[in-house]
Amino acid sequence: LKKYAFSFIFYFHSLKMIHHELGQRKKKVYLDNEKTSFLDGSSGKEELSRKRESKHETYGMWWSDTEIDWLAYMQQVEGFINGTFDYTLLKGDTGPLVYPAGHVYIYTILYYLTNHGRNIFVAQLFFTILYLCNLIIVFFINIRSGQIPSIFLIFMSCTSYRIHSIFLLRLFNDPIAMFLFYIALLCWIYRQWTAGIVLYSLALSVKMNILLFSPAVAVICLYKRGLQDSCRLFALAFLIQVTLAIPFLHTNPLGYLRSAFNFGRVFDHRWTVNWRFVPEEVFTHKCFHCILLLFHIILVFYFLYIKFFRSRFTSIRNAVMVAVDNGTVHLKNQEIVLLLAGINLIGISFSRSLHYQFYVWYYHLLPFLSWQTPYSTTSKLTLLGIIEMCWNVYPSTLWSSLLLHFCHAILLVGLFLQPDLNSKKKST
C-alpha cells in the first residue's frame, strides 16, 4: 500500500510539474510562410498567428511547441488521407516517411483531432495524457518488479527536462511506441502472453526501435510458453504487421519495406548524441556500422547466457529440449523486466546514432537497471544524473558523447557483475 501511495503522489506531482513547465514556455508561435501555406491554405502568417493566439488565449495561456517533426507528420498522413498508398511518395518537409504503418494510422487520428494539424494545443493535451498514463504503467512495472525504493520514483517522474520536452513539446512518435511497449511488458508480468504480443506488435508498427527488445521477447516466450505456443504468438505478431500494412503492401511492397524498416539508413552526424567524438567519414562508413552490429550481437548473446541460460541449463541440448518440450522455466517478474531492459540497453549502447528523442527508449527503465547493479545508492543516483546531463547538452559535444558511453559501459558492467536471481536462489 505504501508503494502505491508513493506512486500516486509522484503522479500528481508530475501533473503539477507539467503545468509549471508548459506555463514557463508561454510565448507566441509564428510559423514561416511555407508551413503556413500547408496549415492554413492561402492565409498569411499574420492571420494564422492571430488565429493561434485567439485559440490559445481561450485557455488562459500561451502554449508553445518546438516544431520539429509535427508538420512533417501531418504532411505525410495528409498524403495517405488523399489516397496515396505508395510509401515512397509520402513525404514531408523533413523528408520521406520512414515509420511503419501504425504510425500513419495514429497520426491520421491526431490529424483529425487537431483540425488537420492546426490546433497543436489539442495534440499537446493528447501527449500530456499519454505522459501521465505512461507514468502509471511504469510505476506498476516497478512496483511489480519490487526492486526500486518507491521514494526514488520521484526522480523518474519530475526531474527530466528532456523527457518532458519529448512528450509535451516535440510531439514525437517515440513516446507512443514506448507506451504501447510498456503496456505489453505489464501484460507479460501478469502472464497475459497473447495480449502482450499484440501490444508489442502494435508498438513495433509505430517505430522500429521496438525490435531492440526482440531477442529477450523470443527467449521469454520460448521458455515460458514452449516452441509450439511461441510460434503461434510470433505468427500473430507478424499477422498484425501485415494487416496494418495491407494498403501499402498492395501498392508497393518493396517500397513499404525499404521505407518502414530501413536497416541501412544513414543518419546525419550533426544530430548524433552518442558519436560526436567520431569523425563524420567514420560515422557514415559501413564498416563502422558492421562493427557496432557485431559487438551488439556478441553482447546480446553473452547477456542472455549470463542472466538466463548459465544457471538453468547444463548444455545447449538441454536448453533446446526444454524450449521444444513445453517451456516450463520459472521466471520472476524482476527477471522478465531485467532481460528486456538489459537487452534494450545493449542495443542503445551500440546504436549507429542516438537522437535526442531516443532518450525515451530507455529513460523509464534506467532506475530499474541501476538497481540491478552492485553499486552503492549514491553511485546509482550519480550515474542516473550524469546520463541525464549528457542528454541535456545541446548540441552534443565530444565530452558529452564520451561521458554517455562511459555511463552505459559502467551500467552494463554492473549488470554483468551482479549474479542472476536464479544463481542467488540456488546458492541459498
TrEMBL record:
Membrane topology reported for the UniProt record: Multi-pass membrane protein
Highest taxon of the lineage: Eukaryota
Keyword terms: Endoplasmic reticulum, Glycosyltransferase, Membrane, Transferase, Transmembrane, Transmembrane helix
Enzyme superclass (EC): transferase
Main location: endoplasmic reticulum
Coiled coil: none
Pathway: Protein modification; protein glycosylation
Localization (cell): Endoplasmic reticulum membrane
GO molecular function: dol-P-Man:Man(5)GlcNAc(2)-PP-Dol alpha-1,3-mannosyltransferase activity
E.C. numbers: 2.4.1.258
Catalytic activity entry: an alpha-D-Man-(1->2)-alpha-D-Man-(1->2)-alpha-D-Man-(1->3)-[alpha-D-Man-(1->6)]-beta-D-Man-(1->4)-beta-D-GlcNAc-(1->4)-alpha-D-GlcNAc-diphospho-di-trans,poly-cis-dolichol + a di-trans,poly-cis-dolichyl beta-D-mannosyl phosphate = an alpha-D-Man-(1->2)-alpha-D-Man-(1->2)-alpha-D-Man-(1->3)-[alpha-D-Man-(1->3)-alpha-D-Man-(1->6)]-beta-D-Man-(1->4)-beta-D-GlcNAc-(1->4)-alpha-D-GlcNAc-diphospho-di-trans,poly-cis-dolichol + a di-trans,poly-cis-dolichyl phosphate + H(+)
InterPro entries: Glycosyltransferase_ALG3
GO cellular component: endoplasmic reticulum membrane
Membrane-spanning ranges: 120-141, 171-191, 197-221, 233-250, 283-305, 336-359, 398-417
PANTHER family linked: DOL-P-MAN:MAN(5)GLCNAC(2)-PP-DOL ALPHA-1,3-MANNOSYLTRANSFERASE, NOT56 - RELATED
This protein's name: dolichyl-P-Man:Man5GlcNAc2-PP-dolichol alpha-1,3-mannosyltransferase
Organism: Trichinella spiralis (Trichina worm)
Gene encoding the protein: alg3
